[in-house]
Structure formats: C-alpha cells, structure tokens
Amino acid sequence: MSTEKYIVFKLKGQNYAASIQQIVTIERLQQVVALPQASSFIDGITELRGEVIPVIDLKSRMDLPRSESTEHSRMLVSPINDVQVGFVVDEASDVIDIDDGIIEAAPTTIKGVNGNFLHGVAKLEDRLLLLLDLEHVLNYEEVNEVKQVVQEK
C-alpha cells in the first residue's frame, strides 16, 4: 500500500480533498476580472506572479450554490492541459496523508457531483472525504474555452 498527500478543502461546509500532486500552489483569493460572454463556470481571470490565469468557481462547476468570498476563500492553482487554472474553494484547511487502502471507488450517484470529477471516497476515522480529480473537472470543450480565455488576454 502507498500513501499520498491530499489538500483538504471545503465547499458549502462539505469536506473534499485533491491530490497535492495536482496542485501547484494555494493562494488567497485575489481580484478577479470578469469576462463578458464566458461560460458561467468561469469567474474571470486574475494575475498571479506575472501570469494571467482563468479562475473557476468550483462550487458552480459542481452545481452547488455560489456564496460570497470570505477571508478564508482560497484558490487552488492546478495545471490543466498546459494551462494554470485557479479553482476557488471556500477554505483550504489541511494537508493529510491518505493510505490508498482506505480509498473506495466513487459512487456514481452522488447528487451534484459528476462521477468523472471523483477519484474516490476516503474513509477516515472521523469523516468521509470526497476525493476530486481536478484534471477531470473540465471536459475537453471547457478546457479549450479556458485556453482561449488565456490566449485572448
């Protein structure tokens, strides 16, 4: 069995996690410039260390109700098909080790969560964690739209 590090984050009070290998950095939410005629899941763009990156509200992408940003809001920056993408979450709280032996296959019928997004479910002593696969949060067409957003700027 092997162990992997995961970043634990919250969306609407629910705990999720993503492999630390999929996340380049965790940033405080910065000013986001809205883009006209962009898909609803694209909040806009922001600049991070001289690079323009698209910002995606992970809640809206997962069909969860949007909420106002707070001082706890964070942006998980992840490379998706050669584009750095910022995923907005309510809070990033922890980095934990998860043994692959406690990860079960993701159920295909979790309301509001596309099964392609899920890597699995980790059964921890005190909670269940839905493990997201950030590389699959966007489909092929959406990745291309995100690339176009960056190229146009």
TrEMBL record:
PROSITE patterns: CHEW. GO terms for cellular component: cytosol. This is Purine-binding chemotaxis protein CheW. It comes from Paraliobacillus ryukyuensis. Residues 3-143 form the CheW-like domain. It comes from the Bacteria. One of its GO terms (biological process) is signal transduction.
